[in-house]
Amino acid sequence: MKRQAKEFFPGVSKIQYEGPKSKNPLAFKHYNPDEVLDGKTMKEHLRFSVTYWHTIRGQLSDMFGVGTAIRPWEDGTNSLTMAETRARVAFEFLEKLGSPFYAFHDRDVAPEGKDLSETNKNLDSIVKVLKEEQKRTGVRLLWGTACLFVHPRFAHGAATSCNADVFAYAAAQVKKAIEVTHELNGAGYVFWGGREGYSTLLNTNLKREMDHLGRFLHLAVDHKKAIGFKGQFYIEPKPKEPTKHQYDSDAAACLNFLREYDLLKDFKLNLETNHATLAGHTMQHELEVAIAAGALGSIDANTGDLLLGWDTDQFPTNIYLTTEIMLSILGMGGFKTGGTNFDAKVRRESFEPVDLFYAHIGGMDAFARGLKIAAAIRKDGRLAEFVRKRYSSWDTGIGAKIEAGQCDLKALEAYMLKKGDITPNTSGRQEFLENLINEFV
Ligand code: XUL
Ligand code: CO
After folding, report:
1. Pocket of ligand 1 (CB under 6 A)
2. How far is the CA of 174 from the centre of ligand 2 (A)?
3. Residue from 30, 54, 105, 360 carrying the catalytic annotation
4. How is 18-29 classified by DSSP, letter by letter?
């Protein structure tokens, strides 16, 4: 590891894999990047990514109190010099952790200027630093995005604002953010509709706002093609927070929206567990809905607290959750452009820099265990065989004919009149299958 001039995490060296017996809190117990499973290394399967907004910019404030984070490198300003320092901090962290990717919003990395032109210049100067650091460390950008929800100008939304100038501003900002992502060779670009929704329908023309969002995304696709950016576009569903209702409320709503506005070929979904649970679904449900449509792209790998009704963005530690996620991901043949992005923050009480390492190490180990367990379940084959058998009536005879579109209602009536009644199915065996999963967890 080529050292930087200044070290920001002096007590931490490169995190190593030490195996399940290790008691070292700054070591991986399960994530062994070069270990091969199912034909790929763990590093290639999981494609971990660290988020700039939480890990580098998060101050650990909440609605009742100011930030508690101790970050010795912060000088209390939002200057360009500070932005450059943060970029160096970020890459030291990424390198020591061994994360192959990172992700950012435009405004995470560089401050807003007095107008759009100065803001763009600020961004360009930090992009130079990011490029240099990417080159130095080999860390890549999983996806870029634009922050269209913090500044007061986006109070009514961005693409779905009632004010056409706000649409124009957001479009200009997204244009630049896509260009910057392209410049940094990003593998993708995310649209999370932070304020693309409403707080009350009394003041909202829902149809007009949805049409504007469709138009906005088409403009982005056109620009992507114009500049030759080959990264994948994603939509990240979330049902609410900060708005009462977001138009991209869940995977099914997004897919419907993309189909309605003829955008399905240009987008995949970036799914997040806490967003799924806020929508009243499990992450597994959301993954399977997206996979069924051939539209799962990437995941945000945080989790929530089911006793709390908001997005807590916690690091994942639940092995059942990571096992279920990895069963779905392996089932679809793995990530292509996407990855496992820790859109997660340490708790307000965990305010020391080293907590950032503990949090990511834990999340990476939880996913590595989920991956190992899911691979073992697939190798064992009993689960897949059970599901295959459960649907076997569709493989031959009347089932195969229905699937092939060779039966009308008349033919089905004739078939049933002749047969008289139904041969009972076998049990669904839910408890048996839950026990089977527990054999591996
Ligand atoms: C908010 C959220 C965002 C997106 C990127 O809940 O998940 O951080 O991931 O804009
Ligand atoms: Co997210």
Report:
1. 105, 145, 190, 192, 236, 238, 272, 300, 311, 343
2. 17
3. 105
4. --TT---TTEES
Nearest ligand 1 atom, CA 147: 10
Cα of 251 vs centre of ligand 1, distance in Å, is 15
Pocket test for ligand 1, best of 50, 145, 248 (most atoms within 8 A of CB): 145
In the set 30, 54, 108, 300, the catalytic residue is 108
Catalytic (active site) residue 105: yes
Which tokens go with 351?
A: 């305010």
Task: Give the separation between CA 344 and CA 311, rounded to whole angstroms.
Answer: 10
Is the separation of the CB atoms in 303 and 340 below 8 Å?
no
Q: List the pLDDT tens digit at each of the 441 positions of the chain.
A: 555 568 999 999 999 999 999 999 999 999 999 999 999 999 999 999 999 999 999 999 999 999 999 999 999 999 999 999 999 999 999 999 999 999 999 999 999 999 999 999 999 999 999 999 999 999 999 999 999 999 999 999 999 999 999 999 999 999 999 999 999 999 999 999 999 999 999 999 999 999 999 999 999 999 999 999 999 999 999 999 999 999 999 999 999 999 999 999 999 999 999 999 999 999 999 999 999 999 999 999 999 998 998 999 999 999 999 999 999 999 999 999 999 999 999 999 999 999 999 999 999 999 999 999 999 999 999 999 999 999 999 999 999 999 999 999 999 999 999 999 998 888 999 999 999 999 999
d(CA 326, CA 320): 10
- Residue 297 alpha carbon to ligand 2 centre in Å: 13
- Give the span between the Cα atoms of 148 and 192, in whole angstroms: 9
